[in-house]
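Thread: "does anyone have the structure for this chain?"

Original post by V.I.:
We have the sequence but no experimental structure in hand. Need at least a predicted one for the grant figures.
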Amino acid sequence: MQETEPDKKNKRFKVSPLLGLDAWIDSSLYELRFRLAEIWEDLTIFFRRFHVTGWRRAIVELLGETFTWGTVGAVLMLTLALPAFHETEKNWRTRDDFAVTFLDRYGNEIGQRGILHRSAVPIDELPDHVIKAVLATEDRRFFDHFGIDFLGLSRAMTENLRANSVVQGGSTITQQLAKNLFLTNERSLDRKIKEAFLALWLEANLSKKEILQTYLDRAYMGGGTFGIAAASQFYFNKSVKDVNLAEAAMLAGLFKAPAKYAPHVNLPAARARANVVLTNMVQGALMTEGQVVGARRNPATVVDRGRLDSPDYFLDWAFDEVRKVAQALPTHTLVVRTTLDTGIQKAAEESAEYHLRQHGKEYHVAQAAIVVLENNGAVRAIVGGRDYGLSQFNRATAAQRQAGSSFKPYVYAAAMEKGLTPKTLVSGGAVSWGNWSPQNYSRQYLGRIDLTTALVKSINTVPVRLAKDYLTTAPIVALAKAMGVESPISSHKTMVLGTSGMTVMDQATGYNVFATGGLAGMRHGFTQITSQNGEVLWDWRRDGPKPRRVLSETAATNMNFMLAQVPEWGTGRRAALPMTRVAGKTGTTQSYRDAWFVGFTGNFTAAVWFGNDNFTPTKELTGGVLPAMTWQRFMNYAHQNIDLKAIPGIDPTLPKQEKVATAAKEKGEEGEDVLKAEERPRLLSNATAQVLREIDQALKKAPKLKLPITPAKVSAL
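Reply from O.Q.:
Generated one for you, tokens below.
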């Protein structure tokens, strides 16, 4: 059937709308493009009027680059500061309502905590001259800046450059408060950036009055006191509301260095510092010379308290431990009998300071930390740093530092539990674990050696081979945790050589398991908590956790056998004691950033660490040098006039020196801390050296006596 003419016209009529739509789209796009071109031309013409040339363009370019890099720097600093802001999530405004009086193991009062933090006086009730003394010395423009005083910082930098030393600080009160509340005294760029951002955060969240009040209440003021009100009561036996100008100046002078200027320790230095504060008040136009002349002529006199050596690092740790168990007690006004032995505490402090003073510059090391435990788990001493007045950061309980080779005993202990023995032979040759190929300290490799030699000479490849072929890292981590290590231990294969951070308290607690023959859970810092009227609220023997076995007797005995060789012919010979056998292990980390000696006798376990707060490397300091020497010095004191006990499973008889010398010669000098013969007389402690000199003189007077030791053997020590 053929289409008619009308049908063809209808079909053409149906197609035409699509063509029209296509034409409309094309025309619309054309008009849009044309319109956008007109707009762009208008904008170009508009912005041409801002085009600059010549010297003006140079200024614009400079400002543009400054803004760009300033933005990049701000983002970078904010990124670095973000971890610090997590600290602000804690309820830092509140303070515990505990008032704790601490006694040592013999019942003598050694300090207080808690109540000293709460002896606050509202800032509106403080005398005007107290506020002026603090502001004149610490932050004259406190009410004019927003947390960071750039003018004050510039002035301080100018004065320091002029004097060629640090004579003025640029930190504001807000920055100092940020450091006290959230950070440590570590001197690093990272900490200063965090401090600056936290200062801005404090200014945004607190009023100036609140910032000043908190600063005055929280600052350490020496003598175990925190806050200006508690310091006034301690030094002058009066309320801070009643102090005169001379006393206010002395209190204000304590903020800079409370240990150095504490008047009960060094009154002349405290008075000299107070005179500087008075000068600052005059220079800051807060008082006239006529107003301060009376305070200059009649300096403050303090209450005679004698020389108070407060074990502040121990008290800080013990206070935290008490709060863990005292929350449920009916009263928070407590008397706590601690495990502290003041004699051992002073010996440990003296030993650390002695070796830092004698060898600190030589080895480029500035800090040390020590923890001493009796083998029943009682903490007898804690040295958290060189000077509590300068830094209250407790390096013994809070600083996590790489353990180095001192971690190896945990690896060997897991191997002993697996059935290996000290005589098990393994290859001391090169080993690769994936793409990791660790090297020995001497850069040499050995053939098949027994595990005792590998541990004593601190061969790196052997524990790596044990973990790779016999253990994996999981049982090592589990055993370390069971032995009392609280710091997180990485399960990465490099952890075998001590790359994980551990505290000094961790190390002492872990090694104490070897000293107890395999029992853990015995560490404690106090034995009894009573109320003020003497009612016993908590007792260690009744309420403390019970010991638990984490290492079999066989494994513990095997470990003690190997560790006892380290101070006799291994890397820890400087730790050997003249009256009893010692077992332990040295440790040195990459770039010599950390040096350790952790050891024990039948009576005590102790861990010693040396390093720098800012993680800068020491000058090739190893664990067998200052840490071992420090350990030997205070342990020599601790073992005087006590019943000497044997290390579990170890013959208590001291080895003859010729046997030790022969063993060392046979085994070679492959360890990380090789003791050179010419160094030995210089590095012996004073007490040990004196004993050896007396023996030497006696033998020279009676050369025909058949004694088991000769002058030559004495010299060989």
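V.I.: this helps a lot. Residues 669-693, 699-717 have pLDDT under 50 and may be disordered.
O.Q.: and The radius of gyration is 35 Å.
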